[in-house]
Write a structure and sequence with these properties.
It is a single chain. The protein is an all-alpha fold. It folds into 2 domains: 2-83; 116-240, Serine Threonine Protein Phosphatase 5, Tetratricopeptide repeat. The protein is 78% helix and 0% strand. The chain contains 10 helices and no strands. The protein has helices spanning 2-15, 23-26, 31-99, 116-132, 137-150, 157-171, 174-187, 194-207, 211-224, 229-240. α5 packs antiparallel against α6 (157-171) and α8 (194-207) runs parallel beside α10 (229-240). The protein starts with a helix and ends with a helix. Keywords: Cell cycle, Cell division, Periplasm, Repeat, Signal, TPR repeat. Residues 31-102 form the YbgF trimerisation domain. Residues 1-18 form the signal peptide. TPR repeats lie at residues 158-191.
């Protein structure tokens, strides 16, 4: 019975790589010879399986590496798209102000006049152009201040306050800049400039030597605007403290 099992095992193993040899040739020789041949066959099979497992492990590592790269790229793309949306919103605000500008002409008895919508959009556009087109930053400060006073409930009010705060911040007038940024944070909770305003308040606190308050503002940004451009800037500022 043992002899038949040995012969069958050798026949199956040998058949995987070559044509089956005659039974009498495989079974010939002493028991030691047959056992040695069987051991060689088994060892060759184990080596083949070992090499196959190594190739499988290598493929699995490559899959894991590719998955990690893919996840990293997905995260980077997500951040780019988020920043792109913010830029589109800012451009849309400027485009809307230009597109909605209309002229209303009164009759000859009252003379020419502009309605409130035209005055609002035109005033905002003029202030923005002083910054973006003409680079007249000092003149832009009173332009935005006047706009905020004249149109406190404007749809552009949050952006106007942020522009004003940024101009004052760049000029080193931190107390007034703080007031403008704080207005955005407290009065316009849904503004896309709120996160940036919190970062600027943190920077002002830093410049005033109040590191504890600065950290409070930066941590608010990380909590309320996680994974945003504002959060990345807040994290950089925190790391530098």
């Amino acid at each position: 019975m043992k002899h038949a099992v040995l012969v069958a095992a050798m026949f199956v193993a040998a058949g995987a790589t070559a044509a089956p040899a005659p039974v009498q040739d495989i079974a010939s020789g002493s028991n030691d010879d047959r056992i040695s041949r069987l051991e060689r066959i088994i060892k060759a099979k184990q080596q083949t399986e070992f090499e196959a497992q190594q190739r499988l492990d290598a493929l699995q590592r490559e899959v894991l590496d590719l998955r990690g790269i893919n996840e990293q790229q997905d995260y980077q793309i997500s951040q780019m798209l988020q920043r792109q949306r913010q830029l589109y919103e800012e451009i849309a605000n400027l485009s809307a102000s230009a597109a909605s500008t209309t002229v209303t002409v009164a009759d000859s008895s009252t003379g020419s006049s502009s309605n409130s919508t035209l005055g609002e959009t035109a005033s905002y556009e003029q202030a923005v152009n002083l910054v973006l087109k003409e680079r007249k930053y000092d003149e832009a400060i009173p332009a935005f201040s006047d706009f905020i006073k004249q149109y406190p409930d404007s749809t552009y009010a949050a952006n106007a306050n942020y522009w004003l705060g940024q101009l004052l911040f760049n000029k080193g007038t931190f107390a007034e800049a703080k007031q403008a940024f704080d207005t955005v944070v407290t009065k316009y909770p849904n503004s896309n400039k709120r996160g940036d305003s919190l970062v600027k308040l943190g920077m002002i606190a830093e410049k005033e030597g109040d590191s504890a308050t600065a950290k409070t503002f930066y941590n608010r940004v990380l909590k309320e605007y996680a994974n945003s451009a504002s959060a990345r800037l807040a994290q950089q500022q925190l790391s530098a403290l």
